[in-house]
Amino acid sequence: MRLLHTSDWHLGRAFHRVNMLGAQAGFIDHLVGTVREHGVDAVVVSGDVYDRAVPPLAAVELFDDALHRLAGLGVPTVMISGNHDSARRLGVGAGLIGRAGIHLRTDPAACGTPVVLRDAFGEVAFYGLPYLEPALVKDEFGVTRAGHETVLAAAMDRVRADLATRPPGTRSVVLAHAFVTGGEASDSERDITVGGVAAVPAKVFDGVDYAALGHLHGSQTITDRVRYSGSPLPYSFSEARHRKSMWLVDLDADGAVTAERVDCPVPRPLARIRGTLEELLADPELARHEEAWVEATLTDPVRPAEPMARLTERFPHTLSLVFAPERAPDDPDVSYARRLAGRSDRQIAEDFVTHVRGAGPDERERAVLQEAFDAVRADQTVREVSSR
Residue 271 in 3-state DSSP? Predict the structure, then answer.
């Protein structure tokens, strides 16, 4: 069976104020064309279909168009909700839509109930694990500690239990939206940290033939059987080096996996350039970036006059301007923001405790701080879900 694995469409999202709807529509065209050209048997979409819980109407219309076109091809599609989606909204009409071959899996309680498809070698069971917010699903899975690994492991126990009841030789595919250990994140993904830990080990997916992952925006191979497709379009300059693609996956009669990447059309390349303003305006090596979307980091010791206006004369698609004056580490003008760069909320809080009383927190105090951060995040998540 040949699968096309994609995820993280983020329909409705902009790129530094640039409307991406046209590029997203171009991706849907490419997706449909790839299904036709490569004889795809099933499409899997591993979450974050939309960029937010209540997407703009134009994004909903594009999603509707995608569903109609995929259904029109007669190729089954399995989709799950991601952490950006409203699972309830995305799942509306799932039963009816399923009759057209578009299978929406947004209910955590149904993660052990597969979509079963057939090919010349027998059945393939597709299990959809929507994004599992630990604080909200721990009771459903009967776990005492709300953590990503705990709830995902419980969901996979249901998958393996159902698979054990299937005829011998049944192959299996799991769709999941999570941060798996070994994956490389970018600035584009929303933080899903709980208990100081967001990542889950790849071994959670042991026992299935292929795990089609979503959440991280870079295409990645965790193992031969566990892969991220990545987002089809860039959504931050941290993705400047990404090769945007989908996975074309073949499952043979025994469940062995072979996979190749199918590149996605990118509307404009990304470039990150750094130097003084005069260097950026004069350097001939930067000519290749003149038609790219540009993030420029200026290292001038004193902020130059009208830097954006001058930059856009050479780089008309400059979208982001960052000031990072090159100063000695002991320079008192080094900004507070730079000193905090790359540090977690808990680390910042621990540094504050150390600054105030002269000694850092002990293990008990660190646990209290982490519990406080988790409680705030869980409350915020509940509020967000309630508003959906």
Answer: strand
* DSSP 3-state of 82: coil
**Nearest to residue 250, comparing CAs of 187, 194, 173?**
173
**Which tokens go with 117?**
């498809």
Confidence (pTM): 0.84
> Which tens digit of pLDDT belongs to each residue from 32-90?
999 999 999 999 999 999 999 999 999 999 999 999 999 999 999 999 999 999 999 99
pLDDT in tens, 193-225: 544 457 899 999 999 999 999 999 999 999 999
pLDDT in tens, 132-184: 999 899 999 999 888 899 999 999 999 999 999 999 999 999 999 999 988 88
> Looking at this protein, which amino acid is placed at residue 194?
V
- Of 224, 227, 217, give the one whose Cα is nearest residue 247: 227
What DSSP character marks residue 214? Answer: E
What is the Cα–Cα distance from 388 to 385, expressed in whole angstroms?
5
Instruction: Report which of residues 377 and 177 the model is more confident about.
Output: 177
Biggest CA pair distance of the chain: 72
Say if residues 28 and 62 touch (Cβ distance below 8 Å): yes
Helix (H) or strand (E) segment spanning residue 355: helix 345-357
Alpha helices (H) along 12-167: 21-37, 57-73, 87-90, 94-98, 134-141, 148-164
- 14-15 and 77-80 beta bridge pairing: unpaired
DSSP state, 95? H
For residue 119, the SS3 value is: strand
Burial grade of 95 (CB within 10 A; 0-12, 13-18, 19 or more): exposed
The SS3 call for residue 249 is strand
Distance CA 309, CA 296 (A): 12
> What is residue 5's three-state secondary structure?
strand
Which residues neighbour 370 within 8 Å (Cβ) at sequence distance 6 or greater?
195, 196, 346
